[in-house]
Amino acid sequence: MSVPESSATSSSETQSSESATRSVGGRGEVRQKALQEELRELVGVVGPGPLVDLLLERSFELGATDVHFDPRPDGLHVRLRVDGILHDVLVLEQQVSPQVISRLKLMAGMDITERRFAQDGHISSSVLRHQRDVRVGSGPTIYGERLVLRLMPDSSNYVELDQLGLEPDQTELVLKGIHAPYGMVLSVGPVGSGKSTTTYSCLSLLNDPGRSLVTIEDPVERRIDGVNQIQVDSKINFGFVEALRGVLRQDPDVMMVGEIRDPETAHIAARAGLTGVRVLSTLHANDTASTIDVFREFGIPPMFIADSVNCIIAQRLLRKVCPNHRETFRPDPATAQVLGLNPEDMADVTLARGIPADSNFHTGYFGRTGVFEVLYIDDAIREAILDEKSGTELGHLARKEGMTTLEQSAIRKVLAGVTSIEEMHRVLTS
């Protein structure tokens, strides 16, 4: 790629967009090196309790989604997942590691004497100064016990639908889908692609005192006023299927099903969507058209799929170029070809890439944005589903009708200077 022409930031419009979507909590104020030094100094002078408390507090401030405690031959490696990438912050010596693991398991209500099997635990918000829940999972490795903490989102920090990264025409289609009198709106993508955030944003738009809203989740990620939230529990055989059957007898207007994982859940959700209930849910699928294939594999009849599904939202999360440490450059011919630019347009286009710094964990990126593909089930798509067209054929038809694909959405973000072409390749071609 060509040599950067300047170290100036991109347009003020891009900067304001970046600033508007930055996470609260002072992520930029807590530097990686400062955190590492702070934790190292504490290891030798305090017990595991204060060390764990500080680590959790700093993890929340940084906007981390997960904390990993990985045993290795040289000690316990502590890593934070920030913007989807794991970063090393500390290595605890082997004599300290068991105390830290035991402290976390005790807080999570887990059996501290059991190290042979995987366990699940929960640190409630009442235990922490930050009103946030933490889900804990443990398991054995050849070097000792491993622990992973999933930091639940801040219930008070909602993301509006128009802040997710959707294009204006995509937002219009999603709104059309969720405001239909009945039927399903599905958010699909791999793990960690922001499906739950999108689903909660849709749910908040339907949260009205005149409606009965119920969620069925595993786990309950955000507490929402005015919504009846149900936590499934496999230990007592109370799963999505059992919860769904019970909720459907309780006169719901809107149901959010955390995830459709199996044929029976899919059948019940589809029937609910056909009988006057608005259903929001997530599903693991690569794109919008392949979602229809997943439903077919679940054994849902074409008529049920065509009539119960209103809208499908496929998504990925891309890291945003750091707004404070970035440089701009003009694309070379190979880059221009990937972005679909004509040679005559190259002179008028500038792209952005980040400069590694302490405030962005030396990645050049800060924060994330979504890229989306929205398939609204109109008459033509519905007819194709009834004719049992394949997912590939449905995709061709949707693109012919003007659907913006994930790749096209990502290219727009690259051209706007929001993300980089390297990040687009990392997420969409991996």
TrEMBL record:
It comes from the Bacteria. Keywords: ATP-binding, Nucleotide-binding. GO terms for molecular function: ATP binding; ATP hydrolysis activity. It holds the Pfam family T2SSE. InterPro entries: P-loop_NTPase (IPR027417), T2SS/T4SS_dom (IPR001482). PROSITE patterns: T2SP_E. GO terms for cellular component: plasma membrane. This is Type II secretion system protein E. It comes from Maioricimonas rarisocia.
